[in-house]
Design brief:
By secondary structure, the chain is an alpha+beta fold. The protein folds into 2 domains: about 170 residues, Regulatory protein AraC (Jelly Rolls, Sandwich); about 110 residues, Homeodomain-like (Arc Repressor Mutant, subunit A). About 45% of the residues lie in helices and about 20% in strands. The strands form 2 sheets. Strands 1, 2, 3, 4, 5, 6, 7, 9 and 11 form a 9-stranded antiparallel beta sheet that branches. Helix 2 runs antiparallel to helix 3 and helix 5 packs across helix 6. The radius of gyration is 20 Å and the shape is globular.
Length: about 300
């Protein structure tokens, strides 16, 4: 069976295309999934909650998003999403690469306003609430981007780029620059977590031990378990189990492989245990879970 990486279906595939790296996904929790594991990508992502409530983890901090909230995920930030206390949620993912906006020649728009996000030296408020400054203008940008993508009239690429630039105009007063000390304090911990997640991504089909993961950071197993739990809010073994279940769920939605083959590909050696664990997490058996996945509104 050909190995299928979870991220191939979402985070490592190109959003949009090479010439126009921009797309929008409409997602529903729990209709399409109950959680999306911690990950990162080089694109910028903006989440706009249309209905309900969900939980977001951003760079190892947890946030509760409610109807109308907007969350900004600049390139490289660790993030995850999950259902909040069985409350359903409808939200939009607006995802784009900064190459869409950056000029080939250095100019003031690049160096002063856009590159700091790419280089990680500028951050935005994690969650923008309706009561906060510039909310109405930014929400209007979100809604227009979504509308334009749905209609996709000739020349929509032009209006999309102009709306994104307008968005960063409204975001500029909210942007804060990160000092070198902050980067030093946080980058080491984040990089260690990324290294561990990358290891799980590439080895989830095989047995994974705490000792192996701990050795990646030169930690003892006991310190590693404390470090991972304190950083992510979950134990390492629970994370691996959840990742494998999410991988299996993605394979169920995106392939015609048998359930037995999927359980083995996802790293479960005991098929009965896989069925029980899957139903415990998703509330459905793997057979019941198979349904169309979340779709991009670009089509």
């Amino acid at each position: 069976m050909h190995k299928q990486h979870y991220y191939n279906y979402k985070e490592k595939r190109k959003h949009g295309n090479i010439q126009f790296p921009f797309t929008i996904y409409k997602c529903m929790i729990p209709d399409y999934f109950t959680s999306y594991p911690i990950h990162w990508h080089p694109e910028m992502e903006i989440i706009y909650v249309e209905e309900g409530m969900c939980e977001i983890t951003l760079n190892l901090k947890s946030y509760r998003l409610e109807k109308g909230d907007i969350l900004f995920i600049t390139p490289g930030l660790l993030h995850s999403i999950e259902e909040n206390n069985l409350i359903s949620s409808v939200y939009y993912n607006i995802i784009f690469d900064f190459s869409l906006l950056l000029c080939k020649e250095a100019d003031i728009c690049n160096t002063r306003y856009l590159l700091p996000y790419v280089e990680g030296t500028a951050l935005l408020p994690s969650v923008l609430k309706p009561s906060m400054k510039h909310y109405s203008q930014i929400k209007n940008c979100m809604e227009n981007l979504i509308k334009d993508r749905k209609i996709k009239e000739p020349g929509f690429e032009l209006i999309t780029k102009s709306r994104l630039m307008l968005l960063f105009y409204y975001l500029e007063p909210l942007k804060r620059h990160v000092d070198a000390e902050y980067l030093r304090e946080n980058s080491s911990k984040i990089q260690q977590i990324k290294q561990i997640l990358f290891y799980v991504e590439n080895n989830y089909s095989n047995p994974i031990t705490i000792e192996e993961a701990a050795s990646l950071c030169n930690f003892s197993p006991s310190y590693f378990m404390k470090f991972f739990k304190a950083s992510t809010g979950t134990s390492f073994l629970q994370y691996v189990k959840n990742y494998r279940l999410e991988m299996a769920a993605s394979l169920l939605l995106n392939t015609n492989y048998s359930i037995l083959s999927i359980s083995e590909e996802a790293g479960f050696r005991n098929h009965s245990y896989f069925i029980r664990a899957f139903k415990e997490k998703f509330g459905k058996t793997p057979k019941e879970y198979r349904k169309p996945p979340a779709t991009s509104i670009q089509q």
